[in-house]
Amino acid sequence: MVDDIKADQTLDCRGLSCPMPILKTKKAIGKMNSGQIIEVLSSDPGTKNDMPGFAKKGGHEYLGEKEDEGFTRFYLKVK
Amino acid sequence: MNEERNSSVLGGILRRGYAAVFEENWPVWLGGVLLGIMSIITFAWARPWGVAGGLRNWGDWFFNLVGLYSRQPESPWISTNSILTLGLLWGAFSSALLSRQFAIRMAPPLEIVKGIVGGTFMGVGAAMAGGCNVGGFYSALSALSFSGIAMMVGLLVGAYLGLRYLYWELEHLPSGAGGGALSEKSEGRFNWRDLEPYAGVLVLLAAVAVAWGYSLQAYTRVGGLLLCGIAFGIIIQRTRFCFVRGFRDPFMTGDAEVPRAIAISLMISILGFAALKWSGLRGEMVYVSRAFWFGGLVGGIVFGMGMVVAGGCGSGSVWRAGEGHVKLMIAVVCFCLSTSLFKAWIRSSEALTAFMGNRVFLPDYLSYKGTVIILFFILIVYYLTATWNEETDRFTVEI
After folding, report:
1. Quick check: is B187 in a domain?
2. B5 located within any domain
3. 3-state secondary structure of B126
4. Looking at A5, A7, A18, A20, which residue is catalytic?
5. Which helix H or strand E contains B114, and what residues bound it?
6. Does A13 sit within 8 Å of B108, measured CB to CB?
7. Hey, is A75 helix, strand or coil?
8. Most buried residue, A20, A25, B8, B335, by most Cβ within 10 Å?
9. Is B101 an 8 Å CB contact of chain A?
10. What residues of chain A have any CB closer than 8 angstroms to a CB in chain B?
11. Closest chain A CA to residue B174
């Protein structure tokens, strides 16, 4: 369940539009350790399309997403 | 009893249909196929699809209004350029409402500056290349104009340069992060999101009424183009079809989904345009602009940088503006103003116009058959190279 996930790092990308949420995630993941979980907050509807594909392409595990007020929380487990 | 059950079954079918069209995401390749078909329908109806021409018309209109231009531009209500772009905005807006994705989305200050700079660059690039990613590249290539290839190369180079800037920004200007004010918070019990689909239906019905109004005034062609523009807007918003990704993603994430969709889309569109021109149903030189090679190539580079920095191309900025992104609304305004001014400057001098390049219609040199084969070959190479890069990350730039 996405509700039970405890993230090691939260990245706030609210207010940013494509491609900044993905680029910032890419950069943040580069500094994290394998197995850690990143939570990304984004208000751009495009992120919903991009994030699963980005995770798959990079070999990270896409754990899911959760709607919040006016934005979405995305969870990725670093490869 | 039976009737009740029948109507509830019908209700279920309609609900599922609505969910499939306006709640679930459409695949990008489907967007490519539908755009290709719409591109041919639009050309068969009246003229090729374009976006920048409409933005320029709005810019011309503004500068005429403030007294900078003495010549009055064609009325935005009659200009086919303007109507197509208005339709795109209208369609994207209604589609965003119908799928509950509309919201005024503020952006942090750095992003606003990027909207201004990116929009201005795109306006200049489009003025040089004879159109944006649509008129200068997509429709130009469909129209068998050599300048479309020049702009394609320019867009790849420009997207690469723009991406290098974004990487630099990530390292040196990390302020852009977080917390743009959002207007979409549900206050109290009232949730505007629940009303959005109804508003979307009204906005769409209004468009049909306006198109009908045009036909009553003997402007059926213009009214039809408004509907074509709306179809483009809905397709592009639902598939989130983004030409920027076709040129940027191979260098950024390596993802090749959009390059593949663009290649498929263009192959469909090229076949339709070739048939319409070859058969004599449409003029051969339509959308073959004086942009080979300098205007197409250099305009493509300038445009490519601008679209990556703004986060939306000609069509992409307009549909995102229709979805409520303030940064892209600003980019569109700057696009209108800069493209109008720069085009006026180019047109003020015959030497400058000639410098942008010549009109090169490929079938004049290669015949129709040869042109279609060569363009297909180029698109297949683009498709395969992007897909190969997806596996190997050969061109992907690491942060």
Report:
1. no
2. no
3. helix
4. A18
5. helix B109-129
6. no
7. strand
8. B335
9. yes
10. 11-20, 22-24, 26-27, 30, 41, 43-46, 48-49, 53-54, 57-58, 69-71
11. A24
* Domains annotated on chain A, with CATH: 2-77 (3.30.110.40)
* Residues A69, B185: C-beta atoms closer than 8 Å: yes
Residue B101 belongs to domain spanning: 26-179+192-392
State the pLDDT at residue B188.
52
Structure token pair of residue B236: 């592009």
Q: What is the DSSP letter of B136?
A: I
Structure tokens at B155: 């867009």
Sorted by sequence, the CB contacts under 8 Å of residue B395 that are 6+ apart come out as: B250, B251, B254, B389
B23 pLDDT tier (thresholds 50, 70, 90): confident
Write down the ipTM of this complex: 0.90
pLDDT exceeds 60 at position B356: yes
CB B159 within 8 A of CB B308: yes
Is pLDDT of B136 > 50? yes
Answer whether residue B210 is part of any domain: yes
Nearest residue of A to residue B96, measured between CA atoms = A45
- Residue B390 with chain A: CB contacts under 8 Å: 57
Are the beta carbons of B177 and A22 separated by less than 8 Å? Answer: no
Under the banding of pLDDT at 50, 70 and 90, the label for residue B77 is very high
Beta carbons within 10 angstroms of residue B202's beta carbon: 12
Asked if residue B56 belongs to a domain, the reply is yes
What's the domain count of chain B? Answer: 1
Average pLDDT, chain B: 93
Strands A61-67 and A37-42 come out as unpaired
Q: Is A18 a catalytic residue?
A: yes
- Residues near B25 by beta carbon (within 8 Å), at least 6 away in sequence: A48, A49, B238, B239, B240
| Interchain contact, B180 vs A16, CB within 8 Å | yes
Q: Is the pLDDT assigned to residue A2 strictly greater than 80? A: no
pLDDT at position B277: 97
| pLDDT tens for each residue of A49-60 | 889 989 998 899
Q: Check pLDDT > 80 for residue B1.
A: no
Question: Which among B107, B185, B244 is the nearest to A15, CB-wise?
Answer: B107
Q: In chain B, which residue's Cα lies nearest the Cα of A52? A: B255
Distance CA A14, CA A71 (A): 7
